[in-house]
Amino acid sequence: MSGAVVRSGAAALPERVEVAVIGGGQAGLAASWHLVQRGIDHVVLERDTVAHDWRDRRWDAFTLVTPNFQCRLPGFAYDGDEPDGFMTREQVQAWLGRYRASFDAPVHEGVEVLGLRRADDGFEVRTSAGAIAAAQVVIATGGYHVPRVPGLAAALPARIAQVHSADYRSPEALPEGAVLVVGSGQSGAQIAEDLHLAGRTVHLALGRAPRSARRYRGRDCIAWLEDMGLYDVTVQQHASGLAKRESTNHYMTGRGGGRDIDLRRFATEGMRLSGRVVGVDGEVLTLAPTLSAYLDHADSVMESIKDDIDAHIARAGVDAPVEPRYTPVWTPEEEPTSLDLAAEGVTSVVWATGFRPDYRWVEVGVFDGSGHPTHRAGETDVPGLFFLGLPWLTTWGSGRFAGVARDAARVTERIAVRARVAAPA
Question: Fewest Cβ atoms nearer than 10 Å: which of 51, 96, 253, 308?
Answer without folding.
Answer: 308
